Amino acid sequence: RIHAVDLHPHSVATTRTVLGRLGGTAAYTVEQKSVFDLSPEQDGLFDVVYSWGVLHHTGNMDEAIRKASAMVRPGGLLVIALYGKTPYCGMWTRIKRWYVSADATGKARAERAYVGLFGVYLLLRGKRLSTHIRNYPKKRGMDFYHDVRDWIGGYPYESITSAALQRLILPLGFALRKEKVKRRSGLFGSGCDEYVFARNG
After folding, report:
1. pTM of the full predicted structure?
2. How far apart are CA 80 and CA 113, in angstroms?
3. Taking all residues of the chain, what is their mean pLDDT, rounded to a whole number?
4. What is the full DSSP assignment across the chain?
5. How many angstroms separate the CA atoms of 164 and 196, rounded?
6. Mean pLDDT over residues 152-165, rounded?
């Protein structure tokens, strides 16, 4: 069975639509629920607990990771993606905090500034912003400008190194099976590092 949870009603509705269309004969439930409200006693344990680019936006990433990991049965997998730590994460936290409370004019100016500076950055590397924008949907699956808003507006915001994540998860009875960690400057944002942990069983 599949049990999906998300805090936002739009995500819940989208998940129901996708599972209804592509879930086949699998039994599934979709709930509007916070990760902080999950409990093995109420929701059960699962072979795979999967969270992709979400827990770093909860306002308490460490506790969210603990809550998610508690849902993995012995021998099961925790598969997560989290923002990698960069030297500019502190700067981006302040920008994001300002952005989410800014008015529409302020947000539009911030987006234009980001795109303009990013265009200069690409030009210095011998690339063109127009080409980057044109090819973006194939690379990321979404519109470039939508992704700019998604990045700047992604608050609460936290990030973590592989070493820090392992210090958090391994004592909970997990072993690292696989990771995909990238080195990033962080000047124009971070990206998700990907991890697979197996619960001892």
Report:
1. 0.92
2. 32
3. 96
4. -EEEEESSHHHHHHHHHHHHHH-TT--EEEEE--GGG--HHHH--EEEEEEES-GGGSS-HHHHHHHHHTTEEEEEEEEEEEEBP-TTHHHHHHHHHHHHHS-HHHHHHHHHHHHHHHHHHHHHTT--HHHHHHHHHHHHSS-HHHHHHHHHT--S---B-HHHHHHHHGGGTEEEEEEE------TT---EEEEEEEE--
5. 15
6. 97
Structure tokens at 38: 């999950």
Cα–Cα dist 5/30, whole Å: 6
Question: Is omega for the bond preceding 40 within 30 degrees of 0, making it cis?
Answer: no
160: nearest Cα among 195, 119, 120:
195
Tally of CA atoms within 13 A in the half-sphere of 87 that contains its CB: 4
